[in-house]
Amino acid sequence: MSNLISLPIILPLLAGIIVAFFANKLPLARAISKVIALTNLAVTGFILYRIYQNGPIILETGDWAAPYGIILVGDMLSITLAFTTNLVAVACVFYASKSLTEQQESYYFYSFFFLLITGVSGAFITGDIFNLFVFFEVLLMASYGLIVLGNGRAQLRESMKYVLINLFSSMVFVTTVSFLYSVVGTLNMAHIAERVQEVDQQGILTTIGILLFFVFATKAAVFPLYYWLPNSYSAPNPVVSALFGALLTKVGIYSILRVFTLIFAWEADLTHTLFIYLAAFTMIFGVIGALSTNNIKLIMAYNIIPAVGFMIMGIGIFTETSISGTVYYLIHDMVIKAAFFLLIGVIVYAAGTSDLRKIKGLIHHYPVLGWFFFIATLVLAGIPPFSGFIGKLLLIRGALAQEEILIVIVALISSLLILFSMIRIFIQGFWGEKTQLAHPERKQAANKMTWPIGFLLSISVLLGVGAEWFYPSVEWIGEYLMNPQIYIDSVLKE
Amino acid sequence: MEIVMAVLAGILFTTAVYNLLQKQMLRIIIGTALLSHGAHLFILTMGELKRDKPPILSEGVENYTDPLPQALILTSIVISFGITSLLLVLAYRTSKINGTDNMEQLRGNDYE
After folding, report:
1. Where do the TM regions start and end (chain A) (predicted)?
2. 3-state SS assignment for residue B24
3. ipTM beyond cut 0.95
4. Are the CB atoms for A6 and A85 separated by under 8 Å?
5. Which residues of chain B are at the A interface, by a Cβ-Cβ cutoff of 8 Å?
């Protein structure tokens, strides 16, 4: 039954190919996409359940034993993230047909969409560092297609920079992988982790570690490598922004989490102190960016950055509590960022502008949207009992246990400022006198777009309220990541 | 032999970075192409260079080169081909719609 673990990669890949044939028959393409997205969610849920019950599933493709062939590793961390990815995908696929124009949909939106999901799930599941690069490329290729979808002036301008930045970091990634191969002579992550302890030239390994961190940090938008993110994430269609904001940066975080708990865990001092400083700067600069603009799409895009800071902080502190905090925050952030970008999409659609100064009194016309936005703000800022609170609580408890007081203060202040930046949208955009709507004819369509967001928000609220159910498995993942020997043994079967 | 290859890869990286830092879009794309060539040479060098030794292990073959770096290069070359052609198309559209191929002028923060 170990072939099961390849399904989260193969199903969306097949879907992407099938949907490409129906580019001009949109109703059919939409129906197929929705059905496949739901099937994929169910299948991933089933695999999650299997792994929860029976332990990790490892697929050695082509029956090549572990250190030689390409392997897929489905442990609790990777499959949980793949499952969350599919939750986001379902919400986005139901939202897409309302938010995109028919022309954009017929330019193979659904194919790119499913290929993106393939790449993201593949990056989570693979156990081979070169394949990590390949799946990064798969998801980046799909994202290049998605970011130019619509062909607008600003979009083309920003996508050019996006492609160049990602191409550069990919090439650095390939070079670093070949470095690593020449030092340890293997590409299997578990095998690398084992060999790394035997290498006597630790200096080279530190260099490789920092280079890998540079690559992943560029994808994850850690300070000072976040400069490309705000403009390119606010340029495309909201559903594309939602996919990017929810999934792409999180793949970077996942890779940092995997590589720095598994491979470079033995010389934690240097790298992890660096992480804590970078986390603090990431939070500060992200929040400053969010407060600096009146464009609500940009405010949202900047808000990705402090969240990345929180997750890096957990990896930097490097205790079981803080790592499980990072994992909890990662799952929470995927769901809530997707919900937020979709919400911003509805607001921009309803108001006809993304300039905050021109939007007033929306709540009189869109009460459901207003309250969804309010709940989402509370979730994002981490007001108990919502899910953001639990993640932050774990992170801060971990930091306090290690006596890293400064980062705790920065984290708490930046949380407050995140709340301020979002509540500003709520106060200016939703409160105020009842005014004439700029586009009253869009009301029905906008209300239809609200429901996929309700789905994501209810998951987010469930994650917070039902923390008692989820916490044990997240805590277990934290423990598991702090003991890389478990991963190595399960892959190499020693 | 490895030294020569390493120097060659270094030259490619240098020219790539020089071209990447230019303003004209086409030069930047040439820079990315050179960068990927440098990376590929690098992978080949890392797998040790040997003369007259095929990357195949069959019966009777005593000396063989490590086949893995060659497989990696193949994957990497395909990817960089794809991205280079995509970049050329993208640059064409961008310069046509924005009316310039100068990266300095492709800035901005306008509301849409």
Report:
1. 6-23, 35-52, 64-95, 107-126, 132-150, 162-184, 204-229, 241-266, 272-291, 298-318, 330-351, 363-385, 405-427, 448-471
2. strand
3. no
4. no
5. 20, 25, 28, 32, 35-36, 38-39, 42-43, 46-47, 68-69, 72, 75-76, 79-80, 82-83, 86-87, 90-91, 93-94, 97-98, 103, 106-112
CB contact under 8 A, A163 and B83: yes
Q: Would you tell me how many other CB atoms lie within 10 Å of the CB of residue B92?
A: 13
Q: Which of A341, A394, A339, A139 is nearest to A251 (CA)?
A: A139
Q: Considering the entire predicted model, what is its pTM?
A: 0.94
Using CB atoms, which residue from B68, B91, B110 is nearest to A154?
B110
Residue linked to tokens 């022309």 = A103
Q: What is the dihedral of CA A78, A79, A80, A81, to 10 degrees?
A: 50
Q: Tell me how far apart the alpha carbons of residues A435 and A447 are, in angstroms, rounded to a whole number.
A: 18
User: If residue B77 lies in a helix (H) or strand (E), which one and from where to where?
Assistant: helix B67-98
Q: Measured between beta carbons, which residues in chain B are less than 8 angstroms from residue A353? A: 111
- Which tokens go with B24? 């004209």
Question: If DSSP states are collapsed to H, E and C, what string results for chain A?
Answer: CHHHHHHHHHHHHHHHHHHHCCCCCHHHHHHHHHHHHHHHHHHHHHHHHHHHHHCCEEEEHHHCCCCCCCEEEECHHHHHHHHHHHHHHHHHHHHHHHHCCHHHHHCCHHHHHHHHHHHHHHHHHECEHHHHHHHHHHHHHHHHHHHCCCCCHHHHHHHHHHHHHHHHHHHHHHHHHHHHHHHHCCCEHHHHHHHHCCCCCHHHHHHHHHHHHHHHHHHHCCCCCCCCHHHHHHCCCHHHHHHHHHHHHHHHHHHHHHHHHHCCCCCHHHHHHHHHHHHHHHHHHHHHHHHCCCEHHHHHHHHHHHHHHHHHHHHHHCCHHHHHHHHHHHHHHHHHHHHHHHHHHHHHHHHCCCEHHHCCCHHHCCHHHHHHHHHHHHHHHCCCCCHHHHHHHHHHHHHHHCCCHHHHHHHHHHHHHHHHHHHHHHHHHHCCCCCCCCCHHHHHHHHHHHHHHHHHHHHHHHHHHCHHHHHHHHHHHHHHHHCHHHHHHHHHCC
Q: What's the rounded Cα separation, in Å, for the pair A89 and A237?
A: 15
User: Quick one: DSSP state of residue B52?
Assistant: S
Question: Tell me: the pLDDT tens digits for B54-112?
Answer: 777 777 777 788 888 888 999 999 999 999 999 999 999 999 988 888 888 887 766 55
CA–CA dist A481, A265 (Å, integer) = 10
Question: Positive or negative, the Cα torsion across A353, A355, A356, A361?
Answer: negative
Stretches where chain A sits below pLDDT 70 are: 1, 267-268, 494
CA distance A474 to A19: 36
CB contact at 8 A, A81 and A331: yes
Does an H or E element contain B33, and which?
A: helix B25-46
Q: Collect all residues of chain B within an 8 Å Cβ-Cβ radius of residue A349.
A: none
Three-state secondary structure of A18-37: HHHCCCCCHHHHHHHHHHHH
Under DSSP, the state recorded for B102 is B
Contact (Cβ atoms closer than 8 angstroms) between residue A340 and residue A376 = yes
Q: Which residue, A76, A73, A70, is CA-closest to A54?
A: A76
Name the residue of chain A whose CA is nearest to B88's CA: A160
Beta bridge partners of A105: none
At B110 the pLDDT is: 62
